[in-house]
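Human:
Class, as today's exercise, you are to examine the entry below, and be ready to discuss the fold:
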Amino acid sequence: MSPEEPPPRPLLVVDAANVVGSVPDGWWRDRRGAAERLRDRLAATGGPADGPYSGPYEIVLVVEGRARGVSSVPGVRVDEAPGSGDDLIAELAREAEGRPCLVVTADRELRRRVEETGARCTGPRSLPQPPA
């Protein structure tokens, strides 16, 4: 990177299943709908207000299982995990290679895996919460 180039935008990778599952709002009845609501909140807010990196972030929402089929929208890319969402999230963190990367999850094992790549982690409550 030359001095004239702006630094790369930090990457925000969101574990949709973990974040959606952190709020007992009936998400289990419509996992895809819950993931879409999370995606829309991320698109509107741009991610955590108090994250370790200043935004704007490049946001990737990782979905799996019955949440598949959620489309990307401006500001949020949705990646469908072909298998384990955790494996895809760890891969995205590894591919960041020196670029600031923040993963949103409360999963301890996933946190350990992504922190080994140099990424940082924060919990689901760091994201703007849905209205009550």
Notes: The longest helix spans residues 31-45. The mean pLDDT is 89.
